[in-house]
Amino acid sequence: MNKKTGKTKNTKKSAIAKKGIALKIIIPILIVFVLTGLWIIKNNGNNSNPENEKNPDFALLVTQKLDIVKLKSYGVPIVIDFGSDSCIPCQLMAPVLEELNSEYKGRAIVRFVDVWKYPSFADGYPISTIPTQIFIDAEGNPYKPKDSESIEMKFYSSEDTKKHIFTAHLGGLEKEQLLSILKEMGLK
Asked: pLDDT tens digits, residue range 67-89?
């Protein structure tokens, strides 16, 4: 027994052993909490808003006339693909559109309009061939590519005001190309 403290050596060893066990339990728990917190922070922007999952404005397939003003109000980049289920180039783009719509729902609007099923849905848009994609940036303006030669785009202006009203691409695009355009248009 230690005369100064009145404790035995075994009591000190027991206390040290208990602290060691406590640290072995607490440290892994803290690590799990930190990692979970980091995962939540990292993925917070990637998870779409549950309301957007049910919101028809974020659905891939367009089954009623587009309200472009409402779509612009979400403040996210917009890609509207005008095509048909029975057009070969459109069929090649379908999985790309489905993937982008699913991955970026709530962060971008990716829509598909079947112009053979719903021809009136293309009214007011410059559609002369399918597939044709219309691009609108996150601020609601027609997309203006930084490098207009990398992917050929067509720019449409109002006959009256000469104001740029549409940016379109005629033909198919690959996922990497569409993703690059979405990022340039403000995808976060």
From this structure: 999 999 999 999 999 999 999 99
Can you name the residues that pair with 135 across neighbouring β-strands? 79
The pTM of the full predicted model, rounded to 2 decimals, is: 0.72
- Per-residue tokens: 102: 């699913």
* Each residue's pLDDT tens digit, 127-177: 999 999 999 999 999 999 988 677 899 999 999 999 999 999 999 999 999
Copy the structure tokens of residue 23: 């640290």
Residue with tokens 């982008």: 100
Helix (H) or strand (E) holding 15: helix 9-44
User: CA-to-CA distance for 150 and 143, rounded, in angstroms?
Assistant: 14
Q: H-type helices in 55-109, by residue range? A: 68-72, 88-104
For 115-150, b/e burial (b = at least 16 CB within 10 A) is beebeebbeebbbeebbbbbbbbbebebbebeeeee
